[in-house]
Design goal:
- This protein has 252 residues and is an alpha/beta fold.
- Helix content is 32%, strand content 28%.
- It starts with 6 loop residues before the first strand and ends with a helix.
- Strands 1, 2, 6, 7, 8, 9, 10, 11 and 12 form a nine-stranded mixed β-sheet that branches.
- The protein is built from nine helices and twelve strands.
- Helix 4 crosses helix 7.
Length: 252
């Protein structure tokens, strides 16, 4: 396998899905052209339902108008897979990797993401399973803990994986991925009976990513300026790390 150069790794915190999607598309173009290094984005999202290309004709659990009144947006997506709920308490992993250079096809890449998630769960003494034909990670024949949906453009991957860490899974379970009525989404917290720190989880995810994808990550403690601008965050010139000024509408 291609030996990784350092992968730029950024914890975005909680961000809107659409802004993060725009950032991914920008990075795909930049990684493909060699302008930017491969990048690993880790995030948590405000409530959103995304529909992969297998879910275009799936019905939603509620009318879009009702979902929006609940503060849940709905977006079509170019990724593979079915409908998925993303929200607080989930770790979302977006590797922007040059699969062409790595000589990885979409199927091989998906298998590596599954391996990464299984190994990450093992660090919390949770046994993850992979079921052929159903991308993601399961904890039993009818319980799923992580979903995978990827897209590839110009040989570069985007979208990725979602792992349920903690939080309310009611909306997750209103959706029926793969059309499996018996499927139930579970979280690390519900399986282990213990609370899980999302910050600790993303740190462990980075270590497992390095192992599975045979490379090193260059971790950014603050949000790089180019990403902040793409996400619409404009902190003051003194501190580019928190966005508090922009959030309050106060600019120096």
């Amino acid at each position: 396998m291609y030996q990784l150069a350092a992968v730029r790794t950024v914890w975005l915190g909680r961000v809107d899905y659409q802004a993060c999607h725009t950032l991914q598309k920008t990075l795909v173009e930049e990684v493909s052209s060699g302008k930017s290094p491969e990048t690993l984005l880790l995030a948590e999202h405000n409530p959103v339902i995304t529909k992969g290309y297998c879910a275009k004709n799936e019905s939603l659990p509620l009318a879009v108008e009702n979902l929006e009144r609940m503060g849940i947006s709905v977006h079509d997506s170019e990724r593979g897979g079915c409908g998925a709920f993303l929200g607080p308490g989930q770790l979302v992993v977006y590797p922007i990797l040059n699969l062409k250079v790595r000589m990885l096809g979409p199927t091989e890449y998906t298998r590596l993401l599954e391996q990464m998630l299984v190994e990450l769960l093992s660090r919390y003494h949770i046994l993850g399973e992979v079921h052929a034909g159903y991308p993601g990670v399961w904890t039993s024949a009818s319980e799923m803990i992580a979903s995978i949906g990827v897209a590839v453009s110009r040989g570069v991957s985007y979208h990725g994986a979602m792992l349920n860490c903690t939080g309310d899974l009611t909306l997750c379970n209103l959706l029926k991925p793969f059309g499996l009525e018996s499927l139930r989404m579970v979280s690390m917290e519900s399986v282990s009976g213990q609370s899980v720190s999302l910050y600790e989880l993303q740190q462990n995810c980075i270590r497992v990513f390095e192992k599975v994808f045979s490379g090193k990550c260059r971790i950014f403690d603050t949000l790089p300026e180019d990403m902040a601008l793409t996400l619409g965050i404009r902190p003051c010139a003194i501190c580019w790390s928190c966005g508090a000024c922009a959030a309050r509408g106060i600019m120096p």
